Amino acid sequence: MDSLSKFRRIRLKQLLTLLNQKLLINEKPYDNKLQEIRSKQSLIFPVAFVSLIWLIKTLEWGLDLDFYQLGIFPLQSKGLLGIITSPLIHSDFEHLIANTIPIFALSWGIFYFYRPLAFRIVLYCLFTTNILLWLGGREAWHIGASGLVYAFASFLFFSGLFRNYYKLIAISFVVAFLYGGLFWGIFPVLKDVSWEGHGLATKMWTIS
To answer: What is its main location (predicted)?
Structure first.
């Protein structure tokens, strides 16, 4: 755990250093046409990801299947694949609907404001949150994209705070408002909620 924590701190410092570089947030004079193109390009990942998770859930429902074993089961080899696949699996349509708008809005924000590093940020959020969840989560199957929601929201909020960039902070607050349980989801007060993943995803951006 010590080596993992050290690795996490190093990676966080590297990312936070990159946040201070001009390539992250475009600070050139506003250009309507350029911003429109950029906004549309930033939709590619959110649309693709949301389409994929809805396709998977529809297949589960249509074929009467259950892909929960593609989730994370802490400290067991059967749960290792879930480090990659767990965000794609949801327990029911209510669970899926709850994650759809937040993951769409937040991932759009990452690809819009941090386009050169967007995929690196997504992969960092995915692997760091889910590896820590596999190491420290309770003995149960953990599924859903909410871990990414918390990681993305925390990233946008704290990076906006560090850079004093109000648009990033605003996006996080709007999503937190729409995603009513965002705050309470990091505490063990809600039944059948992977609060460990939510808490780890939030905490990793508060440590430098």
So the answer is: membrane
